[in-house]
Each structure stands twice: as C-alpha cells, then as structure tokens.
Description:
Structural class: alpha/beta
Amino acid sequence: MTTLLFLFYDLCFFPALACMLIAGLASDRGRRFFFQTSRWRNLKERLALGGAARHARIWVHAASLGEVKALTKFLTLIKTDPRDLPVHLTCMTDPAVVWASANHLRQGLVVSVALAPFDQSLLMRRYLRSMPGLRALVVIETEMWPNLIRCCKQRGLKLFWVNCRLAEGSRKLIGLMPGLFHHLAKSFAAVMTCDTASTRLFKDAGVALADLSQPGNMKWDSVPAQPSPASARQARQQAGVMDGDFLFVAASTRPGEESVVFDAFAALREACPRLRLLVAPRHIERADALRRELASRGLAGTVIGEFGRLEDLYVAASAVFVGGTLLPSYGGHNFLEPAAIGRAVMIGPYFSHFQDAGEALIAHKAVAVVRDAAQMSVALRTWIDDIVDRETYARRARESFLGLGGASQTAWRKISSELAV
Length: 421
C-alpha cells in the first residue's frame, strides 16, 4: 500500500505543482513565488541540476528564514567537530537562501546553500548522486517531504528529525494517511521534538520510534546581544521616531488582529500624544490595504511592506505586540525574538506553536497576555506611564529566554554519537 501511495504521489506531483502555481498567480504572494521559481538559477536547483556540494557529508534541510537563522549554534557545533563533516544546506525560500549565503556560507559554517529540489523521486535520486560522500540528512521542524526521506533512506543515509514541530492540525493529516506517516517517521534514527505537544502527538499516533526525545527549541540557542542605548537610538532614528516618543511595534500581525491594534491605538492617541504606531504584517502584500485602513480611521501610523525589518524594529521599539496570537487559527508567531533582546512584549492567548516557551514566560510574568483592544490599551497605557513596570517586564523577558537554551547541543550530541557508529 505504501508503495502505491508513493507512486501516486510521484505521478501527481508536477501536475499538482503546475495547478498551484497557476492558481497562485491570482495573489501577490503567489506571483512572487512563481517568478522566483522560474528564474533559471532557481529552476536549475529545483530540478536538481545544480546547487549541491560534491564533498558534503551532512545535508541539512530547513524551510524558511526563521528556521535557517535558528541553525547558527547547531552549525557551529558541527563545524567545530574534529571530524571533517562539510554541510550542504537547502531551503524552500529565496530570502532564506540569500540570508544563509550572506551568513552561514560566508562564516564557513556550510560549504553550499541552495533551494531544495522538487520532491519527486527521479530528481531526489539525481541530487543524491551528486553528493557521493553524504552520510546523514537532518530535517528541521516540519520539513517531512516523502521522497526526500524515502530516497535518503534507500541511499543508506542516517536520518535525523531535529527541532520537530507538529502543530495540532497535523493530527488530522496523520489520521488521513496513518500508514504513510508511520513509514516515514520510522525512517529516522532519532526524532527530537521542540515541544510537549509534538511529543504527545507522536505517542498518540502510536508510532514506535527508535529514539524519541524532547531537547527543546533550537531557536532559543541563538542569543542576541542586548542592544546598547546608542544602537537603540540609531534604530529609532531609522524608523523615524523622535527622542521621547513611545514606539509601539505590532509585528507579524494577521487579518483580524490589526483592527484590534488600531482600536487600542485610537483609544490612547489623545491621552498619549507621544505614542507612535508601527505595524509589520506577517504577509507584506497586505501593507497597502492596512495603510488605507489607517487613513480611513484618521490614524497616523506606519505600515512596513518589506522583508527583513523586524530585528531592527524590535531594537527601536518601546513595547511590542506579536501577532498570530489573538485568534486560535494561527498558533502564534515568534514572540521570543523581542523578549531575547529585553523588550516589553504582549501577546494574545493563542500560541500553540510556542506553547512551552509561552507558558514559561507567563509563569515568570515576563510577557503580558491581552485578549482584545481594551486589554491591549490598558497594558500599553501602563507601560507608557510606568517605566519601572515596563523595564521589569523587559528584564524578565530576557532572563526567561536565556533559561530556554541548550537544544542545539543536545541534538548534535545525539547525531554525533550516531555517526560514530
């Protein structure tokens, strides 16, 4: 039965991809993906015609920019291993490839960076033939591509699933094809989850894994330096914020959340004339619509419509709200980033993608939880009026973040011991 599923998947892959690309042309995001994929260099990599490093020993595959950034500590540990273990890194998005090339590749942590080939068996086998010395595949978070896993297993590689994160929605997919999920999951020499929910899902699904552990989230191992007053001042100037202004950054917001932010901002603008609002939506193609909504409400705020700005905005911020958390359908976005640099952070009540870390911060009173515009405006007004309270939240946020690390060391220790066998 599993063989038939793989055959059906292979036969349907390119027709389904073509339909998705054509349907995606109706949206800005889909058009961007189409044109990125159709560039000759990108297409060559997607078709397994280039990009691989012949002398690579470990293939690490991650999805997008957040996962790639989280690999810094893990890749550093591989680099410092006394054995010669060159790493080939693949990603699914252009921004991830650009960032990894400018950072991981330039620092010598990897020997090559490329877009991953399409998940079709002929392409995967061709790609693997171009790396004859490969010993292991490490997949990050949710990158469970059937042919990637199957072909690497058939080739005799050792497979590791690191920072594994399975959202609650994965339970339905597993229920649809339990045999395929069990077959793929059992291909791994070790599965290391990043949270309790993912560990529980494996156990509930009845998958008998060779090695299942929960070392934590690798994203918490990259500890940024706490910004100096000078760097914060510079970031605020670049954001167009004056000395004495209180900058409220609403980051990675989703539809239905911006209206809450705008209502909270509107409630305070007269009482707090130095309050400034900056919104960075999760999907930048929504920026123009949000600017129009701000204008229609008579509110003065800034909406960011470009990638790669969040780190600088967090440095500039007086307080941060991180989106994907006010509505239950999104699972939350990474509120640990502003917490790590010591910013006062508020989130909504829904953060299943970061459940363990969120509960730890809430228990430490290191993050404020708000459910609507009224609660958001109260929390914001408190932080505007009481700098001691705001700085207490900021200090606790960074302290809590620093206590979450160690997953990268645990993961590499496990993989290293397996490769020594």
